[in-house]
Amino acid sequence: MGTTGFWIVLLCTFTITSTSLGASSNNRDISAKYVSGDNPDEAEGFEFLQTYDKRASQECYLSVLSNWAYATNLTEENKQNLLERSLVYAEFQKEAWKNATSFAWKQFKNPSTRRLFKFLSILGTAALPTEKLKELNEISASMEDTYSTSKICPYSLQVVITDESENLDDDKSSSEEENCTLSLEPDITRILKKSQNYDELAYVWKAWRDSSGKKIRKRYERFVELSNDAARLNGFADMGEMWRESYESDTFLEDLENLWKQLLPLYENLHAYVRRKLISKYGNDKIRPDGPIPAHLLGNMWAQDWAGVQEFTEPYPGKPSLDVTPQMVEQNMTALDMFNISEEFFSSLGLKEMPPPFWEHSVIEKPTDREIVCHASAWDFCNGKDYRIKQCTDITMQDLITVHHEMGHIEYYLQYADQPSLFREGANPGFHEAVGDVLALSVSTPKHLKAISLLNEIADDPEGDINYLYSIALDKISFLPFGYLMDLWRWGIFSGNTSVEEMNTKWWELRLKYQGVCPPVKRTEEDFDPGAKYHIPGNTPYIRYFVSFVIQFQFHKALCEAAGHEGPLYKCDIYQSKEAGKLLSQVLQLGSSKPWTEAMKIMTGGKTNKMDAAPIIEYFDPLIQWLKEQNKNYTLGWTSNDPTICP
Ligand code: KAW
Ligand code: ZN
């Protein structure tokens, strides 16, 4: 999360802005894209940018500070401060926009100067009249608040309540409330991962949606209207189109669809295999052999990654487990230890260490004395000094990977710190999401885990390799359709192709079509299930993760080649390779100063400037062959007549 102009608005939930632009006295069209004026003086334009940069960094600092204060302590006072600060920041942005768009910048000679003006000429939500902007900011803050403070009652209490529901007295409601304190992180997440009780899982799955998404529905409808108003004032058809602009590509939608088509066979084979294992566990009265998988049985609240089913679905059981969570707990590892492990990997590549303010100010454990936004994030305070992570770290292998993910964001910040503020962004949002994950691909290898004493013994044989690839597939392949459909859904809402009366049904149509999952209890338009996933109330675009999951394998392959790795891609560990570190750093240092296609070209040594599914397919190839063999006498894919309830 950072804060400068349009590109930031796309990244940061609350760094939104404005007052009435209509008052601007000149006749520049405020509802055109990339507005420019008639001042041809490039030297003056350059000077303006220098002044802008200093002010922008200061304003950004104050804005991010108020965001941080609220996100790490969800009080009414902090919310009011944030809302006020957002309006001040919007004023600054509008002022900057007015000045910037007086220049005939499209005729400027210097390409970097043109690019800076291009970024500045999109105002973002600050284009809204003040009243609407205020309303948008308030809705954003309140949706995030509802999501982040949502709690549910334990299943055990539910059983008691239904058993004794006839003779309950007044004491019940108070004892019920006292016990209804389960939060998503860590309680509910742990239940989803660990419980193998069909009914308990269905209860928790529904209770979470009742207490989060359902409550947000009405506010989200208004939020969409206001967001679209803003997008139109910026010259876009709707907010979905405005979001997609950060990829600077005319073929983005086609490219995504093509990638998905190439990856579908991998997903279908994993889906069919896991479905069979789940039928063995839960029975064929619960799951059809050619049907979708009930969404609550995959070990994750959104069925977005399936690591939770690893233990009982492993291809070759009885080998050393690849989930090192027990070792971490046994070693009494702390959140701080996990952050130190991650930092050590970055420095082994010759990359930058986390600066002292990072260690001083980051929140890496869930506080017990206040409510915070637990969903992990990485923050750039725009002053070249202050960088922080906020994470309610649980002592699990999955969270160790998340620590690397978040630290990847900080490393990107540190690498592009010398760029002008407008270029302190990822080459595209998917690049930002990919950095930490690329390192985590090396960290997760059995050899590396053994080297850092998290595994005692490794199964260095073909069966062990399949187990390993399978465990990574449960993180990466399972995620792909979810990473794709989140924004397919949102783009449909923003464009109006999906009407508000069918928001939830459409969600389940996409969940069925792409993921092949179904809800364990009937869903209706009273519910709002997308709102039960952080990025919807948090207003964070999601296609970046789909992009990241594809390109991180391109990066992994390129860095492994730089490191001189030989042999299969999945065995590569770039630990301590200064060559790999140098290449990565070259790309990160660019920030968004060049279109991402150029960054991709540098990363791949000129081989391609596109997103390419070939490396992820290559990485998983032995597993794909194995799964195909396992599935040869079984149905691939799924059918269902009604996406809003499991058949
Ligand atoms: C995922 C990603 C990597 C590995 C495993 C994964 N499993 C699932 C995901 C996708 C996604 C998720 O949980 O559904 N991951 C995250 O949300 C991690 C959080 C984040 O680092 O991406 C965070 C989200 C966020 C964005 C804006 C406001 C608040 C939270 N993004 C950043 O902190 C961030 C930092 C710099 C630039 C852009 C984003
Ligand atoms: Zn991230």
Automatic annotation (TrEMBL):
Enzyme category, top tier: hydrolase
Pfam family, one: Peptidase_M2
Keyword Disulfide bond listed: yes
Domain of life: Eukaryota
SUPFAM superfamilies, per the entry: Metalloproteases ('zincins'), catalytic domain
Similarity annotation: Belongs to the peptidase M2 family.
Protein name: Angiotensin-converting enzyme
Organism: Limulus polyphemus
